[in-house]
Specification:
179 residues, globular, Endonuclease Iii, domain 2, 2 domains, 10 helices, Endonuclease III, domain 1, mainly alpha
């Protein structure tokens, strides 16, 4: 479990990092964080920030809309981030994917890396699909449905299996393989 920052901060970071290189995303996220007291984005802070402030930090209009949707849902209590530790994985995923800009994959990464949930299998992850193809010597990449079927037997440790699958794609230098 990652105790660094708040759950809102972690989800904000996930939205900012989407579809960007790590270095660019870090730079933008740090600029966004600087807009808030103590460098900690809050729902109230995001809602109070102007579009101009958020754009000047490097956020696209679409990501601003995503962050505002997240902030609105958290501030209203519709997305109860204070209660996530007690929520069932599927219930929490259902709550998270209602936020514009948070899909199933992002929700699963939040469960695995933020909350340390042990039994998450990110069936939509291309790395997981490629690692299963390689490990099971399949001709083509398995579908998400195939990943769920294959991964069912790894329960209740599907997160650990996923970590090993991701690592199996590394070339020994910490970089993912290209095959």
């Amino acid at each position: 479990m990652n105790d660094e920052g708040t759950h809102f901060q972690a989800l904000t970071r996930s939205i900012v990092f989407q579809q960007l290189s790590g270095k660019a995303a870090r730079t933008i996220y740090l600029r966004v964080a600087e807009l808030f007291p103590g460098g900690i984005p809050t729902p109230e802070g995001v809602l109070a920030a102007s579009d101009e402030q958020l754009r000047s930090a490097g956020l696209s209009r679409q990501k601003i809309a995503y962050l505002r949707d997240l902030a609105t849902r958290v501030a209203s209590g519709e997305l109860p981030l204070d209660d996530v530790e007690e929520m069932d994985d599927d219930v929490l995923i259902a709550h998270l994917v209602q936020v514009k800009g948070i899909g199933r994959w992002t929700a699963q990464m939040f469960l695995m890396f933020r909350l340390g949930r042990p039994n998450v299998l990110p069936e939509l992850d291309l790395g997981i699909q490629n690692a299963i193809r390689k490990a099971y010597r399949k001709r083509k990449r398995p579908t998400p449905k195939d990943v769920k079927r294959i991964g069912a037997k790894w329960s209740p440790h599907r997160s650990v299996a996923s970590w090993y699958l991701w690592r199996s794609l590394e070339n020994g230098d910490g970089q993912l393989g290209t095959d």
